[in-house]
Amino acid sequence: MQRPKLQVTVRPSIAQLIYRKKISVRYRRLSKCKECKGTGGTASEPCYRCHCLGETLEDHELNLTFSPNDISCVDRICTVSNVGHEFEIGERDDIIVNIKVQDDREFHVVGKDIYCHVDITPLQAMFGCKIYFPRLDGGAFRKDISPSDKKSVSTKWPDGRVTREENVRWCQSHMALIGKGGGGYERGSAERGDMIYLVDVCTEQDRDGLEKMAIDRIHNLEKRIAGFRTQKNQAERDTREEFEKGKMAAISSLAKAIIPSIDSLEKALEAMASPADEAHRKGVALILEMQRNTLAQHGIEVIPALGKPFDPNVHEAIAVDTESDLPKNTVTNVLQTGYRHDGKLFRASMVRVRG
Q1: Cα gap 151→158, rounded to integer Å
Q2: Which of 205, 217, 280, 299 minimizes the number of CB atoms within 10 Å of its CB?
Q3: What is the C-alpha separation between 122 and 9, in angstroms, rounded?
Q4: Domain Chaperone DnaJ C-terminal spans what residues (predicted)?
Q5: Mean pLDDT value across the chain
Q6: What is the number of alpha carbons within 13 Å of residue 151 lying toward its C-beta?
Q7: Contact criterion met (CB below 8 Å) for 86 and 69
Q8: Are 53 and 33 in contact, with CB atoms under 8 Å apart?
Q9: pLDDT in tens, 115-157
């Protein structure tokens, strides 16, 4: 039975498509188990990595880019080869990518041209004003509009009106600013369309509506800013957490490598009780001190035990001392040194306790 092709959906912005930015597609796909080579193991030796299925699910990220001839600013479906499910080792199926272009409240795509409406009041149109025109990349540019600009500079209209009478009526309430070659693409053509800014002169009755639109836009911008701030804070937290995890892993690896040698040196010092071993004792003690200092530099400290009250949180009693003069439940001898890192137990001290 043939497995259905994997389908994923992405929602790029118009700017991502036009500026040919990478479109990230994240999905999960089936891969043949690398442990059992897709066999699932045998009855006597089952594969525990894939639970005898012969396949595992893995996360994958695909970055899509399109050539100018293949860019379209409208919804479309494309197929990407050899990045889907793995049906044989080294052979993958295709995936179907549903590209749904994000709706944009400011920009409207018609063919390869992109239209943007900018509203001004009759007074602004009469006496001139400074207008900020939004750009696809999120920025804006400013242009001074004078009364003499109240005319159309293009015969391309988004609704297809081309007769002279209709154009004259349209020009009575519109101004147009055209950026040649600043628009979008259509599939099969590498030539970009135009970016057309339509300046709408609104009547006095529309002023309340414009104010509401401005307030709504401010709220939307505030939401976007809050979203960006949240993403920034989350990225910073993730970075700090990853750094701390890496740091802890490195310190743990260092401690596991050094502490056994410290244990051996401590036992060697205990065995050098003869006066003839004094010179060797000094050398071993110096090496021991250097290694302890190395641990201390990374926040790993010795847990005090000798002569201290027994603490089950950091001490592990492995023997009872009935002959010591120390008070009951006091550590009388340390058989293996314990350590902690940043207040957290790394290894408990093995001790003998007064019974």
Answers
A1: 17
A2: 205
A3: 44
A4: 79-197
A5: 79
A6: 3
A7: no
A8: yes
A9: 888 877 766 666 677 888 888 878 888 888 776 554 433 333 3
37-92 pLDDT, tens digit each:
878 887 678 888 888 888 888 899 988 887 766 677 778 888 888 888 888 887 88
Distance CA 57, CA 27 (A): 10
The two beta strands, 76-80 and 195-201, are unpaired
Cα angle for residues 11, 116, 189 (degrees, 5° grid)? 65
C-alpha dist (Å) from residue 211 to 120, 195, 205: 11, 26, 11
Separation between Cα atoms, residue 128 and residue 56, nearest integer Å? 66
* Residue whose tokens read 């302890």: 292
The three-class DSSP label of residue 66 is coil
Residue with tokens 């599939």: 187
* pLDDT, averaged in runs of 10, over the chain (355 residues): 78 81 87 84 79 86 79 80 85 88 80 82 69 83 70 40 44 66 78 82 61 73 91 91 85 82 80 77 83 84 88 88 85 87 85 86
- Answer whether 347's CB lies under 8 Å from 258's CB: no
| Short-list 158, 154, 66, CA closest to 112 | 158
**In this structure, what token pair is assigned to residue 297?**
């530099």
pTM for the predicted model, two decimal places: 0.42
**Which structural domains are found in the chain, ordered by start?**
6-99 (no CATH), 107-202 (2.60.260.20), 257-354 (2.30.22.10)
273 to 128, 268, 276, 279: CA distances (angstroms): 100, 10, 8, 12
**Nearest to 199, CA basis, from 137, 121, 141:** 121
**CA-wise closest residue to 63 among 10, 126, 135:** 10
Structure tokens at 265: 């040196």
Written as one string, the DSSP assignment of 224-277 is HHHHHHHHHHHHHHHHHHHHHHHHHHHHHHHHHHHHHHHHHHHHHHHH--SGGG
Nearest to 85 by CA among 39, 47, 38: 38
